[in-house]
């Protein structure tokens, strides 16, 4: 397992909080933000949600806009990301602030409850296979039978040629940049789809962006 100390990585993300949204927007032509919203229309009826690695609160606000009843546990290892997200909701959705519990913590320290929505947008790709397997087991245990697992991440298409090579090269550069700025130790994408499938999760819907480099999946349990 990559040695991603949550305190160290969290402080690393603290350093890039103020520029994070701008970098995400510019580097992907805003597709990273748009990809997270692919299945937002499916999130209007859930009551208990968990958002892991939520960052500056972009997706959090969208869910609160869409769903007037959901209570969300919002987890991020970066104290400044949490602060930024809280200020975003206080400014733009003040009447919904009481529906969010902000927790500054690594995922491994979370006291899990049961949820009918678990969101992992651009967080699972920060971990290696061993850690994603641990999380997949947690998802199976704590996601309700009819709950949704909402995952958006980088993706390498199962094709040969220049596009696949370019994606792999781009991801290596991205991981190197994160290693310099946040002390993240992960060096390649985990096999998220396989690991979730082993826990009896199935993809019910998918949408791809930037020629398949970004992918949003909806998962459900089959047991």
Order of helices and strands: HHEHEHEEHEHHEE
Helix-strand category? alpha/beta
Major beta sheet, strand line-up: 3-2-1-4-5-7-6
Strand content: 15-25%
- The 3D shape can be described as globular
Number of DSSP helical runs: 7
What is the CATH architecture term?
3-Layer(aba) Sandwich
CATH 4th-level superfamily: Vaccinia Virus protein VP39
| Level-1 CATH class name | Alpha Beta
Distance between the termini: 28 Å
Using the coordinates shown, work out and report the CATH topology: Rossmann fold
- Low-pLDDT segments, ≥5 res: 5-12, 16-29
Write down the domain tally.
1
User: Tally of extended strands?
Assistant: 7
Report what the structure shows.
42% of the residues lie in helices and 23% in strands. The chain is an alpha/beta fold and 223 residues long. The chain has a single domain, classed as Vaccinia Virus protein VP39 (Rossmann fold, 3-Layer(aba) Sandwich), CATH 3.40.50. Helix 1 crosses helix 4.
In short:
With 223 residues, the chain is of the alpha/beta class. The protein contains seven helices and seven strands.
